[in-house]
Amino acid sequence: MALVEVRSVSHARGVLREVSLSLPPARLAVLAGRSGSGKSTLCHLIAGVMRPSSGEVLVAERPPFPAPDWATVSLLPQRLALEPELSVAENVLLPAGLRGRDSAEGLLDRLGLATIAARPARDTSLGEQQRTALARALVLSPAVAVLDEPTAHQDDEHVHLVLDALRAAVGAGTLAVVATHDQRVIDVADTVVRLASGRVLTEPA
Ligand SMILES: Nc1ncnc2c1ncn2[C@@H]1O[C@H](COP(=O)(O)OP(=O)(O)OP(=O)(O)O)[C@@H](O)[C@H]1O
User: Fold this and answer.
1) ipTM score here?
2) Is 40 near ligand 1, meaning CB less than 6 Å away?
């Protein structure tokens, strides 16, 4: 069964051209490709941030635009979009309406954020901010987590933490759609979709 269906999607005069793909639940699916190949744009369409110029995107058989709740599709955007005055833990819990502090503890710990949970996000490193935004995307155990370059600001040690968190989410049933050119992530993917100049080069198996 496909959880994400992209059918003949074109966007913004060639940014994406006739892209089709079909992704099942509980997978780590990588969108790989060079800078400018269209990865972020495809992420935004799957996360329901915008609507395709033509074609159709379906998540759980419905168009995701306007963006649905984060238990259905969550997004880690490249620019993170944290609330700088809120603490790390509060940012992580935003999709849960700042409730459920206990339930986020395991995730904070897994991502190496437990010791800075009470610190305002603005006073944390870029790598910590990125892991905070990742935790926020995973906190509701979404059906689909769309993650744009989740290791861009991570060293090797922290890439392992990120990959462990992704594996745990996928093990719990989440489809993780990860845009990246990080070979360390590509190596552990269940599915790799390669994009070039807005087109899919290899369709997922
Ligand atoms: N609304 C738009 N209209 C026209 N061109 C756009 C629009 N949005 C993005 N682009 C262009 O489309 C191309 C793909 O952009 P996108 O951000 O999806 O690439 P990417 O693969 O995520 O790149 P990176 O790895 O650098 O983040 C780029 O050349 C970008 O300049």
Assistant:
1) 0.92
2) yes
